[in-house]
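Thread: "does anyone have the structure for this chain?"

Original post by V.I.:
We have the sequence but no experimental structure in hand. Need at least a predicted one for the grant figures.
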Amino acid sequence: MTSLPEIPAGTNVMGVGLDSIEVSRIKDSLDRHGQHFLNKIFSVGEQAYCNEKSDPAPFYAVRFAVKEAMAKAFRTGMGKDFGWLDSEVVHGASGEPFVQLSQSGEAMLKKIGATKVLVSLTHLSTVASAIVILVST
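Reply from O.Q.:
Generated one for you, tokens below.
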């Protein structure tokens, strides 16, 4: 089995994650599981933001992609160490996205030596994508 590459000494990039998802998968989950799906995956704030949109599915999809990208950047995958509600996409004064972490998410960030989460997200009507870069400052 090949081991994960080590982060080079002296760098400030501590983790990188990228994810894309088809918006139709999120629409299907919304149709099949409704509020149970939303409460399991998305914070109250994320739900409020997305539900204000005329078509919430692409906005939910890109937040789903951010959460997956976070888990990849932490190198844990989604599970007991890092869960769906351990990250939340929030917006700054100009509308720019930020990732807000739960207390356990902040502890994971500190454990790997990172201090900041950089995020970029995008979505079309059919696909949503996000990249997360964990850095130390």
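V.I.: this helps a lot. Residues 8 and 14 are 9 Å apart (CA to CA).
O.Q.: and Strands lie at 13-22, 87-91, 97-101, 116-123, 127-135.
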